[in-house]
Amino acid sequence: MADEILCTIKDGIATITMNRPEKRNALNTALLEGLTNIFPQLESNPEVRVVVIRGEGKAFCSGLDLRELSSRQAGGGDPETGVTKIFQQIERSRHPTIAMVQGDALAGGCELALHCDLRVASDAARFGMPLARLGLVVPFPLGQKLVEIIGPAFTKQILFTGQPIDAKRAYEIGMIHQLVSASELEPATYTLARTIADNAPLSLAGMKATILRSISWRETINYQDLGDMVNRARKSADAQEGVKAMLEKRKPVFHGE
Questions:
Q1: Which domain holds residue 94?
Q2: Mean pLDDT, to the nearest integer, of 146-155?
Q3: N or C end of the chain: smaller count of CB under 10 Å?
Q4: CATH, residue 119
């Protein structure tokens, strides 16, 4: 397994740690591949009953690695790198999953937290989807997840402004389940994980499967036209300008093309 992803298992609780603190746990190729590879291993491990996902350092996850994103844009590759598929893989895990969010969860980092079953956050955390500031459009399944959790009104605020919200506000709108101080985050998360892990494994798997089945209708929605809009935005001059401006720490100049 790559050093970007660490995994430990103790007392029925698997802990997955994103280990790029110097890059605010930005989702580069190695980290995404690590997430992709570790979940099938946990699925078949009878010792695992619940999974905690956390980030090393001050940030939970700052989203896709912008330098890799810029390189793919220049080379004509897919900037998303299959990240939607990875998040859906996490969501469909038979194990209950908990995101332990100590700091910024932005863009793909916010979506990673949302695709976990439960979210515990410290009062220092922030959540945001700054795609409009990068000239990008949220892929339909990821926008759908936002609407599913916080409703259309707050989804509009988060996506249209591109501005992060603090943990208190995230708790108020139902984005997170538990809000604690920074010093209480780890014990609160593992108390919750321990409570879940003490329950019957077949019950946990069955109830999660029931919940996923109850919302499976969303997978029947045709969104090819929206996918075309996402791809057009990804390939636009504005998207290249947005990423370049973010890397250069300046305000982007968009022209709608």
A1: 5-183
A2: 97
A3: C
A4: 3.90.226.10
